[in-house]
Amino acid sequence: MNDTPPNTDSSPSLIRLRRQSRILEVAFDEEPPYELSFEFLRVHSPSAEVKGHGPGQETLVLGKQSVQIERIEPVGQYAIRLVFDDGHDSGLFSWKYLRELGQTRDMLWTIYLAKVLKI
Questions:
Q1: In the chain, what are the domains?
Q2: pTM, whole model, 2 decimals?
Q3: Residues 6+ positions from 15 with CB-CB distance below 8 Å
């Protein structure tokens, strides 16, 4: 039995843009594929515009239900840039961050929806 944790920086074995269903499918060899909606990715962009420059500076992004990803740009051997049709393109989605989003998607989405409902 191998008790060694997976390398969270390893590159995905699959990145598939499913425009019709507005899903980015990401798979890593040792895990089942993750299906991340375009809206989810947009509101959880790792950019300073969304995350801020420190704890407590996050911005709640609204109105992205119909957002599209226009293209995916590779960034070195460690990340991709998602170019959204609303002009947002400043977040670099590292392999580690994409894996974290996939692993915590349901929890993050629940937290996001709770914040939206408080408005």
A1: 14-118 (3.30.2020.30)
A2: 0.91
A3: 24, 25, 26, 72, 80
Token digits for 25?
């499918």
61-97 tens-digit pLDDT: 999 999 999 999 999 999 999 999 999 999 999 999 9
State the maximum Cα–Cα separation within the chain, in Å, rounded to a whole number: 49
Residue pair 69/86 in contact (Cβ under 8 Å)? The answer is: no
Closest to 82 (Cα-Cα) out of 33, 39, 115, 41: 41
Tell whether the torsion through CA atoms of 33, 83, 72 and 79 is positive or negative.
negative
Pairing type for strands 34-37 and 69-75 reads: unpaired
Helix, strand, coil percent content, the chain, rounded in steps of 5: 30, 25, 45
Which tokens hold the place of 66?
Answer: 């119909």
